[in-house]
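Lab manual, section 2.4: Encoding a predicted structure.

Procedure: take the sequence of the chain (369 residues), apply the prediction step described in section 2.3, and record the output as C-alpha cells. A sample record is shown.
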Amino acid sequence: MPTAWRRRLDGDGVALLLATLRLGGARRESAALRQAWDACADDPGLADLIDFEGCALWLARRLRQIGADTALASDLGGFVTRCARDIAARNLLVDAETETMLGFLAARGTPCILLKGAARRALAHQLPFGDARPTMDLDLLVPASDALGLWDDLRARGYALGFPAAKPRPTHHHLPALVGPAGVSVEIHTSVAPGIPAERTWQRLRSTATTIQRFGVETLVPSTTELLWDGMMHAVRSGARGFRLHQLLAASCIVATGGGTELREVRDRLARPSTASPSLAGAWLHAATWLGGAGDGDPPAILTRSLKWRLAVARRLPASHRVLGVWADEASRLEFDLPPSRGVTGGLRPLGAALVRNAYRFWRLARAS
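Recorded output:
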C-alpha cells in the first residue's frame, strides 16, 4: 500500500473500501485498515454505496480476515453483515437449484457447462472469494440440439416463464428464463453472447473446460480464461452497469490466483478490431486486475472517481437502487462516450439525461479546482 494512499484512507470511504476489497498483500496492512475503518464507521452514504455495489458479502469476509472486529460491531458493520447474509442466502438458493438441475440433466443424459456465477461457485475451492459475489440466477450452456427439448421438459415440470409474454427466439443466445419452485431463474444458453454461433461456442468452451464433481454429479465448468473473458463481455454488453464492483470483483478472484496466462489471452482478444466498446472493456479489465492484487500503486482513477461520484449521490438523494442507478450509470456512460441510456431518456426524458450529465461534469470540475 503506497504511503500517500495510506494517508488518504483516514476519512476517505472510497479509498478504504477499495483497499479492503483488494485481494493479495493486505496482511501486513491489516492494522492500518482496521484503524481506518474505526474512523470511517459513521460515513453517511457509505452503507448505501456498499449495498448498491453488491460487495457486502465480499467486504464482510475481508473485514473478518483483517480482524476488524470493532468495525463489524458498529452500525455500519451490522448493516454490512445483514446485507452479506441476504446475499449468502440467495446464493444458497441458487446452489440448491444447481443441484436439482444437475441431477435432472444427468438423468436426462444432457451434457452441460455451468456458466457465470454457478461456475465461479463451483470453483470456489481454487478461486479466492469466488463464491462471495451475488448470484441471482443459474446459467447453463447446453448443445443447441438439446436446448429446446430441455426447455419444454422444464415447462412440463412446472417451471414458469420469468416473463409471461416471452417466447423462444431461434436467433437469441439463450431461451427465455424459467423460474423454478425455489424462485430461482434458470437460463438455458446455446451461446454466451449474441451473434456467436451455438456450435462454435460449445466447441470452444468444451475443448478447454474442466470436469468437476458438483453435488455428486460430474459436470463441466469453463476454463478460467473463458470465465474472465465472458465476465468482461457480459459487463460490456451491460454498458455502464457493468462497471460496478460486483462485476469487477467476479473477475478479480481469477486474477488473484496469478492468472497471467488468462490476462494475456484476454488482452490479445481485446486488441482485435471486432471488440465492442474497447474503452469500457479496457477500463473494466484494468480495474478488475487492480482489485485482484496485480500491480502496485493507486487504484485506477476512473474506478475511484466513479465510486466517489456514487457516494456523493448516495449522501444527497434518497436511498434507492433505482435513483442511484440512474445517476451512477449515466455518469459512467459519459465517461465511456456512450449515448444516454434508454432508461434515462424514456423515464426522465432527454432533459433528465442532460441534468445528470451536467451535474457530473460540474462535480468533476469542482473536484479538479
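Check your result against the sample. The chain has a mean pLDDT of 88.
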